[in-house]
Amino acid sequence: QLQEQQKEIENMMNAIFKGVFVHRYRDVVPDIRAICVEELGTWMRSYAASFLTDGYLKYIGWTLHDKQREVRLQCVKALQGLYCHRDTAAHMELFTSRFKTRMVSMVLDKEPDVAVEVVKLLTLMLENMEEALTEEDCQSVYPVVYVSSRALASAAGLFLYRRLLDPQREAGRELSRNGDNRTFFQLLLAFFIESELHEHAAYLVDSLWDCAGTRLRDWETISALLLEESPTKGLADQQEKALVEILAASVVQAAKGQPPVGRSLAKRV
């Protein structure tokens, strides 16, 4: 009897979905489209057995291309709610393979607040679906640490830290605080030199300040690295120069507490 009634309820839900949602998610009014996507995300989280399927997920995927900012924003937030848990993220494999290219390209969305949420979404994917993002996908996010919007740069800074600069992730083992920070600075130097934007140390430091500020303020470890003379452990000239730039930028950041020139805290009106 329970199964029969459950089937009946599911048929009713399906009829309402096809009779209302399927027409309204393409409504001419952007607010209605945004509400549809937001609610679909809620249904998927609260009743995953019925709604967390590719038949329903495709509507969110299609709406990622919407021309209106608020609709794209709700799509990304709905996806964040699904990728933030490993158990729901496990159901997203087909969706990820179909729509990942679009999600990665939205890092450059013309609306900064949408781009910020997209980078946060990719960070969740990084944490809960290890193999989802290829190195090429990640290469699309790394340069964002140098953009002028601070919110976007900070989101990209956290992504960069989690993917490339976290010594624990890299080493796969607990290190002493000092050894930990040495590894962090070595990884940071490798990234900074490779990105070839040497006059932009202040922007890189500012982007990482919120997630790795305590590491960047470990000037003792930086000094020890700069003073090392041994041919095996010591730094090359290019690395030393880059590390001095990072040290100077982190001292200025700690003293002033302000983002570098040209980087805005909020969207100018």
Estimate the mean pLDDT confidence.
90
Taken in chain order, the helices and strands follow as: HHHHHHHHHHHHHHH
CATH second-level architecture of the domain at 11-133: Alpha Horseshoe
Task: Characterize the overall form.
Answer: elongated
Q: What fraction of residues sit in β-strands? A: under 5%
Give Rg in angstroms: 23 Å
CATH superfamily of the domain at 11-133: Leucine-rich Repeat Variant
Q: What is the makeup of the main sheet?
A: none
The helix tally amounts to 15
Family: Belongs to the SCC3 family.
Domain SCD: 21-106
Keywords: Nucleus
GO molecular function, one term: chromatin binding
General description of the model:
The chain is mainly α. The protein contains 15 helices and no strands. α8 (112-128) packs parallel to α10 and α12 crosses α15 (237-256). It is elongated and about 80 Å long. Mean pLDDT is 90; it is low at 171-175. Keywords: Nucleus. Belongs to the SCC3 family. It holds the Pfam family HEAT_SCC3-SA. This is STAG3 protein.
